[in-house]
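Our collaborator T.R. sent over the components below with a one-line note: 'Predict the complex.' Nothing else. No constraints on interfaces, no templates requested, no preferences about which chain binds where. So this is a plain run: every listed entity goes in together, and whatever single assembly comes back becomes the starting point for the next discussion.
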Amino acid sequence: MKPRPFDYVRPDTVEEVLELLAEYGDDARVLAGGQSLLPMLNLRLLEPSLLIDISRLAALDTIHDRGDAIEIGAAVTQNKLMSWAPLQQKLPLVALALNHVGHFQTRNKGTVCGSIAHADPSAELPLVLALLGGEVVLQSRRGTFTLAAADFHQDMLTTARKADELVAAVRFPVVSRQGVAFQEVARRHGDFAIIAVAAVMQDAGQARVGVGGMAGRPLLREIKVERAAEAIGAWADELEGHEDLHASGALRRAIFKRLGPPVIAAASTAKVGGTA
Amino acid sequence: MRRVNRNERVRIALTLNGRRLSAEAEPRMLLSDFLRHGLGATGTHVGCEHGVCGSCTVLIDGVAQRSCLTLAVQAEGREVRTVESLAAPDGTLNPLQQAFRANHALQCGFCTPGILMSFTDYLARNPKPTIEQIRDVLSGHLCRCTGYAGIVAAIEEVAKR
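Returned assembly:
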């Protein structure tokens, strides 16, 4: 349960990070909070030759209100975002989801961007970023590119990030005038979800719904509130459901069918700008 | 730019419970092992080594985190607090520790140092937590002896003071 040997580097600037990524590519791993990376290293699921520690880079430790979106830098921890005063008002769905991300102790260190870059199929933050139509900001020596969250997260632990790119930030669109809701089923509160469902109202009768844990990445669909149970049932039946140690595909489909309709109902009755 | 190559042992200095200390480590050494084997501070316990059990929780710059999910070199120059810092030099337990004793919040004591450090951080931020908040923070720890009821009672007692 100890990592294999690796080189460690703690750059002083983002430029140095990008130089190292250009040089080492896939042999390097970016270390931000390390709450997913360190377990994988300890279990020897990963054997990078270089770890690039960005956790002390103040330039990446910023939450920036761009008006229509909130940009969160790569070194911002989940608890820092949780205690960001305007969160509830600007990103109520993110506020709901963060309660389910790991534990108090892991959120103290784990980063928002790290969770999205790690791309676990049942993780809460990738689901919410995809559902809200957010973006991922990728930086390399070649320049800065933004990708839609739906294009970034390709499959289980697989993203569109190129080997020389740093996930420098993510952008959550400000959604403050639509009802939102989030619920998940996990073995223990704070563990990875078996199934997570989030919803955001489009207009009075229609919700945009996202589900995590059913496939290698979050899945999205527009659903009419009055036909929610029927639509979720049909959607669940179309899906194989991700099979792993924690749950069979059949169990995941069954949970999704039970969890989906109440989440949609909660979003549709949530106060404007409020949460349920 | 700080760089340490694999198998290279470098001196890592940090502040442990108010004392400036250092020891040698290679990059892959976990902070949990560094505290125990490098600095001899064995109050921090190592359970699962992948961030699930919470036994190894310490404060780094006042913030509770898993020392098994932190490299020693990452804590370089930081202020680390462990369970050894809680009691007075003469061994008198602090209020949180006394409440654990009074409420049967521990049996074997293996998980206890981590739980004490988590709530040292949490109660400093939120001195009057609800029982739900206590349970939520406690969900980051595993205890196989107590069934958790005594731990919740101990923390509630401290919060009521």
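Summary for T.R.: Residues 112-125 of chain B form the longest helix (14 residues).
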